[in-house]
Amino acid sequence: MKTEHDLREPLYESHAARLGTGTAAQKLGASVDTVAPGKRSCPYHFHYAQEEMFVVIDGTGTLRVAGEMLPIKAGDVIFIPPGPEYPHQIINTSDRPLKYLSISTRETPEICEYPDSGKYGAYAQDFRTLQYAKNGVDYWDKEP
Q: Strands 28-35 and 98-105: what pairing?
């Protein structure tokens, strides 16, 4: 099992134990994520294709979803469908680690949008790019 540590001060810090990496899984992703006290797991975002489910294993925190801040605790099960109606982010608002199981479909191609920063990410097999919406070009730009 591969474990990744993501740290981006001052707001983000988490450890993720990737459960599906190196397995036969093709359409499901899973990890056990632990968010440090006072930190966030990842930027506020939503997926256009991927569906997610979170099961809070230990601790308490806040689910930022669709403009609301909702308390979460051990035993809670959270379903996040794809689409712009459900931007989401898990925040550890406690003084103890927050641990949860994260399960998702691994849809490709995938577009992910980050409302706080105005970024978009496009992902497909070996292709990955992040851009700002303001950097967009005309469909015919540089075409003969």
A: antiparallel
Average pLDDT score over the chain = 95
DSSP labels for 49-105? S--EEEEEEE-EEEEEETTEEEEEETT-EEEE-SSTT--EEEE--SSS-EEEEEEEE
Contact 109, 121 (CB under 8 A): no
Phi-psi region of 9 (alpha: psi -120 to 50; beta: other; left: phi over 0): beta
pLDDT tens digit sequence for 60-96: 999 999 999 999 999 999 999 999 999 999 999 999 9
The reported pTM is 0.91
- For strands 12-18 and 88-91, give the pairing: unpaired
Whether the per-residue pLDDT at 137 is higher than 90: the answer is: no
Domains in the chain (CATH in brackets) are 2-108 (2.60.120.10)
